Amino acid sequence: MIRSIEEINQKIREGRVVVYTAEEIIDVVREKGVSAAAREVDVVTTGTFSPMCSSGAYFNIKQPKIKIKMGGGTAYLDRVPAYAGFAAADIYLGATALPDQAPRNARHPGEFPFGGAHVIEALVSGKKVTLTASAYGTDCYPALERDEEIGFEDMNEAVLFNPRNCYQNYNVAVNLSDKTIYTYMGVLRPNLGNANYCSAGQLSPLLNDPLYRTIGIGTRIFLGGGKGYVVWPGTQHNPNVPRTETGAPKKPSGTLAVMGDLKKMSPAWLRALSFVGYGVTLSVGIGIPIPILDEEVMKHVSVTDAELWAPVVDYSRDYPYGEGGGPLAEVTYAQLKSGRIELMGKQVPTGAFSSILKAREIAGILKDWIRKGNFELTSKVASLPGVKGGEAL
Predict the structure, then answer these.
(1) Which residue stretches of the chain are H helix?
(2) How many C-beta atoms lie closer than 10 Å to residue 294's C-beta?
(3) Contact call for residues 47 and 287 (beta carbons, < 8 A)
(4) Per-residue model confidence as pLDDT tens for the chain (393 residues)
(5) Contact yes or no for 281/53 (Cβ under 8 A)
(6) CA–CA distance from 292 to each of 18, 66, 211, 387 (Å)?
(7) Nearest one of 123, 147, 1, 12 to 74, comparing CA atoms
(8) CA–CA distance from 19 to each of 37, 240, 365, 368 (Å)?
(9) Choosing from 53, 140, 166, 198, which is the catalytic residue?
(10) How far, in whole angstroms, is CA 349 from its chain's centroid?
(11) How many other C-beta atoms are found inside a 10 Å radius of the C-beta of residue 165?
(12) 40-43, long-range: CB < 8 A, 24+ apart
């Protein structure tokens, strides 16, 4: 080990810490080599800003004078149903939730103009939303209904809690059929009319720590413009996939469950999206610092788009129906970011659902926070399940 996280934090406090983003470090390593760069640099920052459907928030809403037990009853925020299976004043709103009256895909493709993500974005923008709740009434909670405008000031807690974010690599979606299809990877034109992907590539957090050596439970992160934490492996976390010689997964693999104080976040980094024919989702900004503990960590964070591979998958039959014998091809993120890939003898235009500009901005903000002493690193308290060095939970 070259340095510990505590030694890095001491340098942060003293204003001596050396930080680069995951894009900047590539040129540093090219110029100086892995060993020299590892001795010189303390932290590398990463970033991603992508649609992440498995997101949501829980709220503890202040009680009126005559109290109500929403648990076991119903609760709506701006007509969007929230889960009310907790105690009297706790509810959870999922990003993809829709109003009961929404036509959904009754007339395909549906437009999905409003849902849970829009409510979360409204609240984090400082707006009030309408709480409509019903209850069955008890001796200690006699009120049967509640209908009023509420904002953050009317909540004891508002916490973003996302069961699955920050996917480590993901499919490139294409359409082999002869009709347009509407998916969570966007509109896919027929006969390989386009190819959509969703990763920041060389800026993406888990692609810079492919074996989960530094990112684990307890890692402090940039989340939605505020500070949050990795709290568990995300749902569908699957580290056991084919990997490159350096450990980078060649398929969707690791994920993170994250949480943080929603009241301290920004609408710039939590943005509601409507996908025609599919539904509502929430784009989430996440940045994770990678402490340079040794040369292996430096080697991982200097990975380039040309070294990162993603599988190309047909979303007309293979993905939805489990058909096909595997990916149609593998392409690098350098090829994807060039705007065009060659597939089955055809030049296919590419489109990104992960904003590279926003990911770059997040990595830069996190770098500034660390350099100015506003963000110290944490040591993980437990490892994510991994292919190497992971600790089973």
Answers:
(1) 5-13, 24-32, 34-40, 116-124, 295-301, 318-321, 333-337, 356-371
(2) 13
(3) yes
(4) 899 999 999 999 999 999 999 999 999 999 999 999 999 999 999 999 999 999 999 999 999 999 999 999 999 999 999 999 999 999 999 999 999 999 999 999 999 999 999 999 999 999 999 999 999 999 999 999 999 999 999 999 999 999 999 999 999 999 999 999 999 999 999 999 999 999 999 999 999 999 999 999 999 999 999 999 999 999 999 999 999 999 999 999 999 999 999 999 999 999 999 999 999 999 999 999 999 999 999 999 999 999 999 999 999 999 999 998 899 999 999 999 999 999 999 999 999 999 999 999 999 999 999 999 999 999 999 999 998 544 444
(5) yes
(6) 10, 55, 14, 20
(7) 147
(8) 11, 31, 11, 9
(9) 140
(10) 25
(11) 27
(12) 41/292, 41/298, 42/3, 42/8, 42/11, 42/17, 42/18, 42/291, 42/292, 43/8, 43/17, 43/18, 43/19, 43/289, 43/290, 43/291, 43/292, 43/367, 43/370, 43/377
Residue 140 designated active-site? yes
Residues 310 and 250: beta-carbon distance below 8 Å? yes
Q: Please state, in angstroms and rounded to a whole number, the distance separating the CA atoms of residues 69 and 313.
A: 47
- For residue 217, give the H/E element and its range: none
Residues 6+ apart with CB under 8 A from 24: none
Question: In whole angstroms, what is the distance from residue 83 CA to residue 32 CA?
Answer: 54
Residues in Cβ contact with 61 at an 8 Å cutoff, skipping those fewer than 6 apart: 70, 89, 91, 131, 150, 154, 155, 156
